[in-house]
Amino acid sequence: MSYTEATNVDGVLVVEFNDSQIVDEKRIKQLGAELMDRANEAGGKLLLNFQQVLILSSAMLTQLVLLHNKCKKEDIDLRICQVSEKIMEVFKLVRFNKLVKVYDNEENALTAYNKRGLFAWGKN
Questions:
Q1: 8 Å CB contact between 35 and 69
Q2: In the prediction, which pLDDT does 116 show?
Q3: At what angle do helices 58-73 and 25-41 cross, to 10 degrees?
Q4: pTM, whole model, 2 decimals?
Q5: What is the DSSP track for the chain?
Q6: Block means of pLDDT (10 residues each) for the chain, length 124 residues?
Q7: What does the pLDDT read at residue 102?
Q8: What is the rounded radius of gyration, in angstroms, for the C-alpha atoms of the chain?
Q9: What pLDDT does 86 receive?
Q10: How far is Cα 60 from Cα 81, in angstroms, rounded to an integer?
Q11: Max CA distance (Å), the chain
């Protein structure tokens, strides 16, 4: 069973989550492995779209940090978009938003991938 759906949009692998609640430990381990596989497929640009996600556990935060570390090591530009307010509060609390660029929507994130120089961060 796949826990994500992936689409290539202009050279960016956009990954969307199928679950709204990411709390089950067994699923989180499988999802973590799946995200690592997605990173291998990414070709340098990986965008995680959290639109469907309402709740995630601290174990999932660990998986996201591991994914960030892999992407950093392998020079993959990892970004996140469409994070709910509650999850964003958690990201800020653990300072995950300082590790990964977070955008309000997919369109802004995709546009930012194509910007260079001083304006590379765009509106986020």
A1: no
A2: 59
A3: 20
A4: 0.90
A5: --SEEEEEETTEEEEEES-SEE--HHHHHHHHHHHHHHHHHSTTEEEEE-TT--EE-HHHHHHHHHHHHHHHHTT-EEEEE---HHHHHHHHHTTGGGTSEEESSHHHHHHHHT--GGGTT---
A6: 93 96 94 97 97 96 97 97 96 95 96 70 45
A7: 97
A8: 13
A9: 95
A10: 16
A11: 42
Sort residue 11 into left (φ over 0), alpha (ψ -120 to 50) or beta.
left
Domains of the chain by range and CATH? 4-101 (3.30.750.24)
Of 84, 77, 69, the C-alpha closest to 112 is 77
> Cα–Cα distances in Å, from 86 out to 24, 64, 93, 118, 120?
18, 16, 11, 30, 27
One-letter identity of residue 80: I
